[in-house]
Structures are given as C-alpha cells and as structure tokens.
Amino acid sequence: MLQDLAPECPRSLRDPDAIAKRRSLLSERHVLNLATYVEELRALGRGEVPDFDPLDGGDEARVLFLFEKPGPMTSSKRGQERTGSGFISRDNDDPTAEATFLFMQKAWLDRRLTAVWNIVPWWNGTRAIRADELRAGLNALDDLLKLLTSLRVVVLVGRKAGRAHSHLQRMGLPVLQSAHPSPIVRASRPKSWQSIPYQWAGALPFVDTV
C-alpha cells in the first residue's frame, strides 16, 4: 500500500531511485486527474510545473496546503547547480521541504489527507511573483478546486499565498493561514516560524468532519 512507501525522514527525494519510484506512482488512481491538470498547465508555457506528490492525498485530499511558488528543487531540469525532483513535495532536498515534513508530523496531519500546491504553479527561475502570474495562478486554482471533491479546508502558507484569501472565501471554503517554513522566516521571525505546526493543526477539526 502507498502509505507503506512514505519515508520516515525528510529529504528522501535527494535519491534518484526514490524520485524514479515516486514517478512510477503517477498512474495511481488518486493522482491521475491531477497529472492531467498539470499537463494542461505546462501547455500554457509559463514555466515548469512540478507534479503533485502521489504519496499525498491526491484528489481525495481534505486539506489543501497552498504555498507561494515552486522553487529550484522542484525542477527536474539538468544544468542547474542541483537537479531537483520534479515534484511539489515535503520530501524534497531543501530546508523548506524539511521543515514542512517535520511540521506536518508535529501537527498530526496524515499526509494521505493532504495535498500540497502553490498559488503560482509555474517555476520560471525566480521566486518573485508578478501580478499577471498571480491572476493566472488564481484562475488555475479554480480548476484545481473542482478536482478536489473531498476538500474541507485550505491552508495558505506565507504572505504571498495570503493574497488568495478573499478569492477562496468567496468560493465558500474555510481558510487558515500560517507563516512560510523557509529559512528566511526562521531567521527573521523565529516565533512565527515556530508557530507554524500549531497553526496547521487548526485543520484537524475540518479533517474529522464527515
């Protein structure tokens, strides 16, 4: 079963064999529709679009964690300093993913009930978010939400992701917010960084709702 494949420690996708195994799971039923969605985003030509992690909940997720924008370690292109995984994943080989992995555990959130994505789904070599990217990202988000038929709550992770708050509320979805688990936030706002797992745990009452 897929839960038996879930790694016990962060940064497991530093291993090329682990990446290959994860890629072989993209044909699993719960991620098939999301894989098609990703291909449609790629066809828009705005940049690289990493895949959803098939060890997460896929279209059966009850909690959607929306970060800001993919980073270098989501990219599978060669020629950069390090080749990433090609996934949006808590298992990526970078400090933000490592913190996400550990904070999810601390919040007691089963990864099979979660999906991790970004307000802007395209990686174009910079973490800066232009206004036109945000508009396109929100339009793409509307299409994603139609696929997540079990969704109960959205968690916006980071200030830039917070720009989607009113958009999601207009759609009638409960919305929570937290700081971003990046090294920058850890250094500049350590109390906010330390509070993240407790804010994420606020999704638990929605997960338990039938």
Within the CATH hierarchy, at the fold level, what is the topology? Answer: Uracil-DNA Glycosylase, subunit E
Tally of discrete structural domains: 1
Major sheet: 4 strands, parallel
Q: Averaged pLDDT, please?
A: 94
CATH architecture: 3-Layer(aba) Sandwich
Spans of at least 5 consecutive residues with low confidence:
none
Would you state the CATH class?
A: Alpha Beta
Enumerate how many helices there are, as a single number. Answer: 8
Describe the 3D structure.
The chain is built from 8 helices and 6 strands, in the order ααβββαβαβαβααα. It has one domain (10-204): Uracil-DNA Glycosylase, subunit E. The strands form 2 sheets. A 4-stranded parallel beta sheet has the order 4-2-5-6. It is 38% helix and 11% strand. It has helices spanning 16-24, 29-42, 95-106, 131-147, 165-170, 183-188, 190-200, 204-207; strands at residues 51-52, 63-67, 87-88, 114-118, 153-157, 175-178. With 210 residues, it is α/β, with parallel strands linked by helices. The protein is globular and about 40 Å long. Helix 2 packs antiparallel against helix 4 (131-147).
Summarize the structure in short.
This protein is α/β, with parallel strands linked by helices and 210 residues long.
Defining traits:
210 residues; alpha/beta; Uracil-DNA Glycosylase, subunit E; four-stranded parallel beta sheet; 8 helices
Task: Set out the fold topology.
Layout: H1 16-24, H2 29-42, E1 51-52, E2 63-67, E3 87-88, H3 95-106, E4 114-118, H4 131-147, E5 153-157, H5 165-170, E6 175-178, H6 183-188, H7 190-200, H8 204-207
Parallel strand pairs: 1-3, 2-4, 2-5, 5-6
Helix pairs in contact: 2-4, 3-7
